[in-house]
Specification:
365 residues; alpha/beta; six-stranded antiparallel sheet; 42% helix; globular
Length: 365
């Protein structure tokens, strides 16, 4: 399994220039809020996913006054081989991604090479905001484990953009529109099938982790929702054609897919307390971690940002003990309280490293 041995970060968020080495097991980062703990985890996430876990707006990742940033990491790969991955991003959005100094032809080729799961306070957007956040979650899981899924989603999105552009043309070619509809339908079916399978696989695992974390007996569940429940996409698009021409965009399709998060059959957004919602989201990410571990045959890198926020310390300790078994992978854990974090981690493993950060500068402690 890939293990991050060293990272070099330049001009990423509040980090000017930093080089850090890590334990292959547990790495703990402490510091005050806003000191840079999350930024380090985001840099590690960027090396795996070529984007931030929390923001699609690239300019937020540049250090103030800078017009580019760079991140490089040295990993021990399967079989003990060493590989170096590096990404440079400029203010015009250009990304150059390399493995062992050799550029990738397509960024998508990198997906799944460095599998990763991140748990953070930003996950709350999956409950509180639109379906876009929940689709991002499904794509983040499936794009790391299924290259065919990623290719299909990317092709579908390109066709969707072209179809929407056609709909804005007052002299839209109806025959060409039908061709787009058939192509999109052929891509939508396998994407929807994989998303449905994912939600069905996640539900029992989310329930297991939620019960362990919350100590409660509430039943939680996920239900995949898609327009394709009404039939083939090309038939739905044909039925909606006049509406789409009036709206000048595509009003049905897998770009509207969603997941219903429920507790006792009711939307968790409405009936769940803050603690229950946090427990559910943490359970969801740990379930993702388990599914990806089973898919790869080894554990992904696990990033746990401010895990103790709104959660009982003893239950978090129990949850970490569940994850940190004999086959656990590399873990990065942040907390504002270095005494609290040490009290838990020292009981899990003796192979760990501690860092403290202030204003984007990190030191071992």
């Amino acid at each position: 399994m890939p293990v991050l041995e060293k990272i070099v970060i330049r001009d990423f968020r509040n980090i000017v220039l930093q080089e850090l080495g890590f334990s292959p097991n547990v790495n703990c980062i402490s510091g005050n809020n806003g000191s840079g703990k999350t930024n380090l985890l985001e840099a590690i996430h960027y090396l795996s996913m070529t984007k931030s876990s929390s923001s699609s707006i690239e300019k937020f990742n540049f250090r103030h006054g800078c017009n580019e940033f760079a991140i490089a990491g040295s990993y021990k790969m399967e079989g003990g081989l060493e590989s170096r991955f590096a990404i440079q991003v400029t203010e015009d959005g250009k990304k150059v991604l390399k493995r062992d100094d050799k550029p990738y032809k397509r960024v998508s080729e990198h997906m799944g090479v460095l599998p990763i799961v991140m748990v953070s306070p930003a996950d709350s957007s999956m409950v509180s905001e639109s379906g876009e956040e929940r689709r991002r979650f499904m794509n983040a899981v499936l794009s790391q484990t299924d290259q065919e899924y990623l290719d299909a989603v990317q092709q579908y999105n390109r066709l969707l953009q072209q179809r929407n552009k056609m709909l804005k043309d007052h002299n839209c070619d109806m025959s060409l529109l039908e061709v787009f509809d058939m192509k999109m339908a052929s891509l939508a079916e396998p994407v929807a099938a994989r998303r449905r399978e994912l939600c069905e696989a996640l539900t029992p695992k989310v329930q297991e982790y939620y019960s362990a974390l919350s100590g409660g007996g509430e039943q939680v569940s996920l239900k995949y929702e898609t327009d394709l429940d009404r039939g083939p996409l090309d038939a739905i698009l044909a039925e909606n054609r006049n509406r789409d021409l009036a709206l000048r965009y595509t009003s049905a399709g897998i770009q509207r897919d969603d997941i219903a998060f429920t507790m006792e059959g009711h939307p968790i957004r409405r009936c769940g307390s803050q603690g229950q919602q946090k427990s559910f989201l943490v359970s969801l990410k740990f379930a993702q971690y388990e599914i990806m571990k089973n898919r790869y045959g080894f554990a992904p890198i696990l990033l746990l940002d401010d895990l103790f926020d709104k959660l009982d310390m003893n239950r978090v300790s129990n949850l970490l003990a569940m994850v940190a078994g004999s086959d656990f992978g590399q873990i990065f854990l942040t907390d504002s309280n270095k005494v609290r974090i040490a009290g838990i981690v020292d009981g899990l493993t003796r192979d760990r490293m501690y860092y403290e950060t202030s204003e984007g500068t990190f030191k071992t402690i």
